[in-house]
Design goal:
7 strands; alpha+beta; 255 residues; L-fuculose-1-phosphate Aldolase; globular; 10 helices; seven-stranded mixed β-sheet
Length: 255
């Protein structure tokens, strides 16, 4: 039997928690499907509905492509496991997530990646450049956080939170990308834009020619443009189609 499938979990949690588990497992699978995973490293966390400050995060050691709804681990803001789970949690991984969740009550999901494109741009002094349509949405809500080593220390949390501010995108210098959103779907869509922005930038720079910059006034109206494009639905507009994509590939994330 697959150790990442725990049939008893579904019957022991609320319908709302189970739906959150399915959506978060789907997010992990999508990150793997789009090539953003870093083996078993990096993390996506989601706040559970209800008054308790409980969150779901990946079982440490599982590939993103094999994570299931029932294998996700429930933790509190200190990263302590709630209930019974045979799976460990990477305490270093939850350092970043716990900081953001504690400071931003509007955030339901935190998504962090170590992609080649993201790290490549994070190592550039100029950061994200306004050279693509995708970049204007990122630049309209972007913060930067300087590298302080592996995220293990609690004293880094205030600085990270301050650098994120009220933004949806955070570039972790020399480290990777981070997005937040009110829902899992929103955080995923934000990461799709962030990763695509970085990939486009590196390809444009590799051509060696002079780059054309988008006018600052266009960047300034990007949030309004985004609402029109998504009909104010944000990530929810694309999420059902993404779930259908996963169901065609492997519906096992629902287990």
């Amino acid at each position: 039997m697959n150790p990442l499938i725990r049939p008893e979990v579904r019957s022991s949690v609320s319908a709302d928690e189970w739906q959150a588990r399915v959506d978060l497992a789907a997010c992990y699978r999508l990150v793997a499907a789009y090539g953003w995973a870093d083996l078993v490293f990096t993390h996506i966390s989601a706040k559970l509905p209800g008054p308790d400050e409980h969150f779901l995060i990946n079982p440490y050691g599982a590939l993103f492509e094999e994570i299931t709804a029932s294998s996700l681990v429930k933790v509190n803001l200190q990263g302590e496991v709630i209930g019974e789970s045979p799976f460990p949690v990477n305490p270093a991984g939850f350092t970043i997530h716990s900081a953001v969740h504690a400071a931003r009550t509007d955030v339901g999901c935190v998504l962090h990646t170590h992609t080649v494109n993201g790290i490549g741009v994070s190592a550039q002094k100029g950061g994200v450049l306004p050279i693509s349509q995708q970049s204007i949405f990122v630049l309209s809500s972007l913060g930067y956080h300087d590298y302080e080593g592996v995220a293990l220390r609690d004293d880094e949390k205030p600085r990270l939170v301050a650098d994120l501010g009220t933004n949806s995108f955070l570039m972790l210098r020399n480290h990777g990308l981070l997005t937040v959103g009110p829902t899992i779907a929103d955080a995923f869509l934000a990461m799709y834009l962030f990763e695509t922005t970085c990939a486009i930038q590196l390809r444009a720079q590799s051509g060696g020619g002079e780059l054309i910059l988008v006018h600052p006034q266009i960047v300034a109206t990007a949030q309004q443009q985004a609402q029109q494009v998504t009909r104010n639905l944000g990530g929810a507009l694309a999420w059902p189609a993404l779930l259908r994509k996963l169901d065609r590939i492997d519906p096992g994330f629902r287990d």
